[in-house]
Design brief:
The protein is of the alpha+beta class and 880 residues long. It has 26 helices and 34 strands. The strands form 9 sheets. An 8-stranded mixed beta sheet has the order 6-5-9-3-2-12-15-14, with no helix packed on it. A 5-stranded mixed beta sheet has the order 17-18-19-21-20, covered by helices on one side. A 4-stranded antiparallel beta sheet has the order 10-11-16-13, with no helix packed on it. Strand 2 and strand 3 (35-45) form a beta hairpin. The longest helix is centred in the middle third of the chain and has 34 residues, at 385-418. The structure holds O-methyl-L-tyrosine and zinc ion (ZN). InterPro entries: Aminopeptidase_N-like_N (IPR045357), Aminopeptidase_N-like_N_sf (IPR042097), PepN_Ig-like_sf (IPR038438), Peptidase_M1 (IPR001930), Peptidase_M1_dom (IPR014782), Peptidase_M1_pepN (IPR012779), Peptidase_M1_pepN_C (IPR024601), Peptidase_M1_pepN_C_sf (IPR037144). It is an enzyme of class 3 (hydrolase). Its cofactor is Zn(2+).
Length: 880
């Protein structure tokens, strides 16, 4: 907590560390309120620096300092200066020395969940980004890599399991029911990858043989009694390990890989070397407790954390500005993994839908920042959609330009050059370029500039010359506080469709266009395609080959052709979304003006054809039926937004689809049943997803068939996907059936926190006017705890981030509810508070009355004296 204005940290001020730590020995004696940590550090003046420093400044927070020794001799008080952030030791030797420090920390009091804390009696650590400094004084920065040896001591009955990174080298019993374990990690690592876990944990074990023939033991640790929910996580881990060998030639490097699931965790999971710590929501799954989406997320996050072992751990970041180096690349890798496990096109659709909705919103608002930011107050605020997901898009773009093999060659060179190092985005882009004899430096602009470029496309056709001329140009939106931006290279995958929907071969200057890819490398460029027999329809930005806003000015007729007949499945969906978006915007505007709005029957019919087409995958058809969200529509409108009008417009379109497509949807529902028993695989999940979309539209259209099926499904479903799916549809229908189903669900699952989170989230996301009152009840429910991040996300998070119409309620009560929660949570967990307050990022796009109310709520937060730097940074940017 602080009262003065927090300091900005700048990338341009990066300086290498004055000292390195070649070896780190930690002796941790666990105790809930007084954990004692003795460190012994082998400190070496940084040989790369000319000037020798005479003092060393170590990071440290919330520590009680007991003792400091250098080379075995106590350092007297005059040579020590401790603040609430660091410890400076003066007159240190000019040659390598041993530094010993003894401190005490208080895990039980740690509700910020950064550093060493207790989660339901289990000691665990979270050190990224700057949590290690809450365990001991250290050079807590990613460019200081050290070999760790850790001794953990605790009371055996309370902490029978003692874990840290690397290999277990010694264990032993001690008097007084105590015991210890010593772990050694042979790989030098930065402190943010350190982990320690101790507690009463059950374990599930498996093993895998790496492709070079090394046996690796795989262990998942969970709360006792939850062992039967680890099967999917273990299977996913094994598939991820194999995939990384096959696709990128990357093998695991220790004899053991461990995962621990904990109930209190600020994020999804953490890639600590050899000892990943997970939010239990991303490990535990059983058919009756987890939905298909949970299974897919578990698979993806397990893979993500595992892939970090190379992209993040073996090659790490020089400083936190380079965060995208590990996160963007690792998200890209997990996306590719999921695409291979499931349907590639459906995965791409899911990722693009999310990117457009979430990252484009961030990039268009007050929190916009480059994929590699140039300054920050609190690094924890930069684990963002931009760093992660736009960062992944940049890797994908580079792969598109280099081709899969070229990209692989580039990554091989990156690991050859930089294994064991802490590097920058420039190092990454250079390795990709050098391996392919290409100069990719222009792509660095993508890393350094905020904002989503708009790609304009105009196609003209000359009958006489048989030529199609495509004019591509780019612009950046005005963003307050962002400098003028330069044109970026934009890879554009495209196709031209002939009169019968057939692909016209692309030829420019007599040469075929490889992979249908052109690159716009200036502000504006014209591409002339030859030998085009008749006026073609343009299929643009296939595969979403660059993260841009597309303005193709296409005619409705051409868009409908593409929805029906594009040979590229991704673009069929992309055009359907664009059409739907334009359509809902028009309906909302008519609605706001009190005009009569008419649903476009050609669009509904085209979507119906796709839904009915059994030659297409079920999951793909389900994705097709999902309309853009209300916040997507708000983003497209961009100013003076009336969320009620959007809600009504979207509801109207869904009801019209449900009514007009009734026969198709009923038949699709009947013929898509998955095989029993429940199987979480992609094919069965796709069938369930399509049935759910069909039922949901049928219910929106008030189909008796649909509503009867939903009611029955809510009572009889034997898996969580169908059970919760039915409950969600009932929440749209409302009335007694919904209330009864909610009660039944609660009775059945009240002892299962992960399932009850769904029950909370569903009610908090309801557009119904009584939701504000319900949320007040939910947070008073004994099952709610404001200190548990999953609970906070499922109530406040679901409400603020996922319920546009009620969060932006005309009364302002939604804003007040969240502002109060932010203030309360900031008192103990700033990271969680600052994520929640981010929900206000779009406040300026709403109509004046709502804007005024939101501004007032934000002002109330900013007026608080005791605001964390985390929340201060976000709110001050949002307010502008
Ligand atoms: N590196 C992890 C995410 C993570 C980041 C920060 C955390 O605490 C502030 C925790 C986890 C990942 O990408 O999975
Ligand atoms: Zn990550």
């Amino acid at each position: 907590m602080k009262t003065d204005t927090p300091k900005q940290i700048y990338l341009k001020d990066y300086a290498p560390p004055a000292f390195l730590i070649s070896e780190t020995y930690l002796d941790v004696v666990l105790d809930p309120a007084e954990t004692r940590v003795k460190s012994r550090l082998s400190v070496v003046p940084n040989p790369a620096l000319k000037r020798r420093a005479t003092e060393i400044k170590l990071d440290g927070e919330l520590l009680r300092l007991l003792r400091v020794c250098i080379d075995g001799a106590p350092v007297d008080e005059q040579r020590l200066v401790a603040t609430d952030k660091d410890l400076t030791i003066r007159d240190v030797p000019a040659k390598p020395f041993t530094l010993e420090i003894e401190t005490i920390c208080d895990p039980a009091a740690n509700k910020a969940l950064s550093g060493l804390y207790l989660s339901r009696g289990v000691y665990c650590t979270q050190c990224e980004a700057e949590g290690f400094r809450r365990i001991t004084y250290y050079l807590d920065r990613p460019d200081v890599l050290s070999k760790f040896r850790v001794r953990i001591e605790g009371v055996k009955p309370d902490t029978p399991v003692l874990l840290s990174n690397g290999n277990l080298v010694q264990t032993g019993d001690l008097p007084g029911k105590r015991h210890f374990a010593v772990w050694e990690d042979p790989f030098p690592k930065p402190s943010y990858l350190f982990a320690l876990v101790a507690g009463k944990l059950a374990m599930v074990e498996d093993s895998i043989m790496t492709r070079s023939g090394r046996a690796v033991t795989l262990r998942i640790y969970v709360e006792p009694g939850k062992e039967d929910r680890c099967d999917w996580a273990m299977k996913s881990l094994k598939r991820a390990m194999r995939w990384d060998e096959d696709r990128f030639g990357l093998e695991y490097d220790l004899d053991m890989f461990m995962i621990v699931a904990v109930s209190d965790f600020n994020m999804g999971a953490m890639e600590n070397k050899g000892l990943n710590v997970f939010n239990d929501a991303l490990i535990l799954a059983r058919p009756d407790t987890a939905t298909d989406s949970d299974y897919e997320r578990i698979e993806g996050v397990i893979a993500h954390e595992y892939f970090h072992n190379w992209t993040g751990n073996r090659v790490t970041c020089r400083d936190w500005f380079q965060l995208c180096l590990k996160e963007g690349l690792t998200v890209f890798r997990d996306q590719e993994f999921t695409a291979d496990q499931r349907s590639a096109v459906v995965k791409r659709i899911e990722d693009v839908r999310w990117l457009r909705s979430m990252q484009f919103t961030e990039d268009a608002g007050p929190l916009a920042h480059p994929v590699r930011p140039s300054s920050f107050i609190e690094i924890n605020n930069f684990y963002t959609r931009t760093v992660y997901n736009k960062g992944a898009e940049l890797c994908r773009m580079l792969q598109t330009v280099l081709g899969r093999d070229g990209f692989r060659k580039g990554l091989d060179l990156y690991f050859d050059r930089h294994d064991g190092q802490a590097v920058t985005v420039e190092d990454f882009v250079s390795a990709l370029g050098d391996a392919n004899g290409a100069d990719l430096s222009a792509y660095l602009l993508w890393y350094n500039q905020a904002g989503t470029p708009t790609l304009d496309a105009r196609l003209s056709y000359s009958e006489g010359a048989k030529e199609a001329r495509l004019t591509l140009s780019q612009t950046f939106p005005d963003l307050p506080g962002q400098p003028k931006r330069k044109a970026v290279p934009i890879p554009v995958k495209l196709g031209l469709l002939g009169p019968n929907g057939g692909e016209i071969p692309l030829e420019v200057e007599g040469k075929p266009v490889d992979g249908g890819l052109v690159v716009l490398s200036k502000k504006k460029e014209v591409f002339t395609f030859e030998k085009v027999g008749s006026r073609p329809v343009l299929s643009l930005l296939r595969d979403f080959s660059a993260p841009v806003n597309l303005n193709a000015g296409a005619r409705d007729k051409d868009m409908l052709t593409l929805i029906r007949a594009d040979t590229d499945l991704f673009n069929r969906w992309q055009n359907a979304q664009a059409f739907a978006l334009k359509h809902i915007v028009a309906l909302a505007s008519a609605n706001a003006k009190g005009e009569n709005a008419r649903v476009e029957p050609r669009f509904v019919a085209a979507v119906g054809e796709v839904a009915d087409d059994d030659t297409l995958e079920h999951a793909y058809r389900a994705a097709f039926l999902a309309l853009p969200s209300e916040s997507d529509v708000a983003l497209a409108i961009g100013e003076n937004v009336d969320p009620e009008a959007i809600h009504q417009a979207r509801t109207l379109l869904r009801a019209a689809m449900g009514k007009s497509l009734r026969a198709i949807l009923e038949s699709v529902y009947e013929r898509s049943a998955p095989a029993e028993p429940y199987n979480p695989d992609a094919e069965s999940a796709g069938r369930r997803a399509l049935r759910q979309s069909a039922l949901s539209l049928l219910a929106a259209g008030k189909s008796r068939f649909g509503i009867a099926r939903v009611k029955e499904q809510a009572k009889t479903a034997t898996n969580m996907t169908e059970s919760f799916g039915a409950l969600s549809i009932l929440s749209q229908v409302g009335g007694e059936a919904y209330d009864q189903a909610l009660q039944r669900f609660h009775r059945r699952w009240k002892d299962e926190p992960l399932v009850i989170n769904k029950w909370f989230a569903l009610q908090a996301s309801s557009p119904s006017p009584d939701t504000l009152a319900r949320v007040a009840d939910l947070v008073a429910n004994p099952l709610f705890s404001i200190q548990n991040p999953n609970r906070v996300r499922s109530v406040y998070g679901a409400f603020a981030h996922g319920n546009q119409v009620r969060f932006n309620d005309a009364s302002g009560a939604g804003y007040d509810l969240i502002a109060n929660a932010v203030i309360e949570i900031d008192g103990f967990n700033p990271q969680m508070a600052s994520r929640l307050v981010g929900a206000f990022e779009s406040w300026r796009i709403f109509e004046p009355k709502r804007r005024a109310l939101a501004g007032k709520a934000l002002g109330r937060i900013l007026d608080r004296k005791e605001l964390s730097p985390d929340v201060f940074e976000i709110v001050s940017k949002i307010v502008g």
